[in-house]
């Protein structure tokens, strides 16, 4: 009986570790930053504001963005909400004065951002964000998208197919 439990535990731990390693490099970078405090003007792990967070994450992959959400909203190419993919920037009007918040789309209606509560993942469908969504922009061309935003399982399936 105890051998079965140990074996089952081992199988579960192995399966979890394989699943955890399937994250894309972009997701892995973002996961390291979850929970870091909000800091107005912050653009490093000592604290982030929203555009400092997106700037920092993309800089880890050699992609430069300005430290200003509205400035970031001019980068890349426009993409329709229904066509968003991981790595796209999503913009919101949280101030009533135009674009004032930015995050990184992760897929499945989830995005990572630095809010007043710190770096977190939120749903695009949350009432607050759904009502304030303005637009999204594609920053990653196909080359970078395939290297940093696709998870391991997707890459394996793509190469096999």
Automatic annotation (TrEMBL):
Name the keywords, alphabetized: Hydrolase, Protease, Signal, Thiol protease
Keyword Signal assigned to the entry: answer is yes
Q: Where is the signal peptide?
A: 1-22
Q: Does the keyword Hydrolase apply?
A: yes
Q: Where is the NlpC/P60 domain?
A: 20-140
One Pfam family cited in the UniProt record for this chain = NLPC_P60
Which SUPFAM superfamilies does this one have? Cysteine proteinases (SSF54001)
The UniProt entry, under PANTHER family, shows: MUREIN DD-ENDOPEPTIDASE MEPH-RELATED
The record's similarity note reads: Belongs to the peptidase C40 family.
Q: What is this protein called?
A: C40 family peptidase
- Origin organism is Marinicrinis sediminis
Taxonomy of the source species: Bacteria, Bacillati, Bacillota, Bacilli, Bacillales
């Amino acid at each position: 009986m105890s051998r079965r439990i140990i074996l089952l535990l081992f199988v579960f731990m192995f399966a979890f570790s394989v699943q955890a390693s399937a994250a894309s490099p972009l997701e892995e970078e973002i996961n390291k930053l979850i929970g870091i405090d909000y800091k107005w003007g912050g653009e490093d792990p000592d604290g982030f504001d929203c555009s400092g967070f997106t700037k920092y994450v993309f800089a880890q992959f050699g992609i430069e963005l300005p430290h200003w959400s509205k400035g970031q909203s001019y980068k890349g190419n426009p993409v329709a909400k229904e066509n968003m993919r991981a790595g796209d920037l999503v913009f919101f009007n949280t101030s009533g004065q135009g674009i004032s918040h930015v995050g990184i789309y992760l897929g499945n209606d989830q995005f990572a951002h630095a809010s007043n509560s710190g770096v977190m993942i939120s749903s695009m469908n949350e009432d607050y964000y759904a009502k304030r969504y303005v637009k999204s922009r594609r920053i990653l061309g196909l080359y970078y998208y395939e290297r940093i935003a696709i998870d391991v399982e997707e890459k394996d399936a793509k190469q096999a197919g």
